[in-house]
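Here is one such tokenized protein:
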Amino acid sequence: MNHLVAPSLLSADFLHLEKDIEMLNRSEADWIHLDVMDGVFVPNISFGFPILNLLKEKTAKPLDVHLMIVQPEKFVNEVAEMGAEYMNVHYEACPHLHRVVHAIKDRGMKAGVTLNPHTPVSLLEEIISDLDMVLLMSVNPGFGGQRFIEHSVEKVAALKQLIARKGAHALIEVDGGVNLETGKRLVDAGADVLVAGNFVFSSEDPVETIHQLKML
């Protein structure tokens, strides 16, 4: 029960966003997960910095910003200025990943690297010790409410082994298709952070749903 829960704001009701933020503030959610999409790296557009900058005024929860965009290195300063604790960039979007990771750290944030479902964890061999977190996508990124990719459980276990073998300390975060059943298997495999969007925000009692995810 030491794992964290990070509800994804992508599934919130944007006509009543402040109400959903207040719900998250009351809940046992550890972080708020923010998916920024550009319609280029992924086939969808979400929200940008005007929305994100309002969040730091409305919540004390740590902000976990996941940039599903091309050239995420261009926005390190903006993410830092909005008060993010974690900045996640995609391995697939960063040809100079080491440089980007250290630019994130230099701005006082914790650095996360995200892997798409087809990207093997072995590609992090040379940088895992520099990372604070690895985010494994358990669906193809771009849309909420997708079906969980079963291989993700094995991928969590493989990443856990890599972290242990290298003496690293990165957290393992998983995003996509997380519910009570998949979440339990992911935690048992070694996941430290569960991102849940549709499962939380479409439930009759989101606060209780977050509590149930915390109790896995």
Notes: The chain has a mean pLDDT of 95.
